[in-house]
Amino acid sequence: MRVCLKIDAPFESMITVSASEPLLPEAAYSIMAQALFNVLKAMKSVLEGFSINKGDRGEFLAMLFLIIARDKVVGPPAEHGLLPAGPRIIDVASFLSGSLFQPVPSLQALYQDFPNSKMHFNHYVKVHEYAAIDAESLLLLSSRGEGILCANGQYAIDGINPFLSCGTTLGFGGCCFGKAKTIPLSRRHLNNRSSR
Length: 196
Fold this sequence. Notes:
With 196 residues, the protein is α+β, with helices and mostly antiparallel strands. The protein has helices at residues 23-32, 39-49, 59-74, 92-100, 110-113, 135-143, and strands at 2-7, 14-18, 90-91, 118-119, 123-126, 146-149, 159-164, 182-187. Strand 5 (123-126), helix 6 (135-143) and strand 6 (146-149) form a beta-alpha-beta unit.
């Protein structure tokens, strides 16, 4: 679902943004969990069938893989798409060491390094301004379940998934006084070996 911001005079192009509505990704989560649904085939169909910018660096595929990994940690929805027995808030170490990457011994250190770190995301929004990447914005976006696709040209960072360092109490600063520190888990999308 897109919101149209501007259409040029000859109606040849338009500028749209994604409306951040966490309900829609939850519906997609229920559909994607169905046994007959082929996620990669559906993504290919959408990207081939519409006038959608596929991204210059493979960012749509990277975000899809992150969503699939998130869904693996959350688990399948219960009957009729209701919430599963587990929470939507996921453990960062489990996400990184068990669902996103193949389990290897070196990743087990994440459980000691981030013992009570939590993350919640079920969709991505594109941030068009560099100034929007600050602690307050990351915390607010994360509270709505949003991962971030950074503005084009953002130096060395293409996307961010914020997580909380000490549990689920939202706040700024360190782990003192029961508030978790918001930490950006940043990533870079490269689909060309020569650009590394």
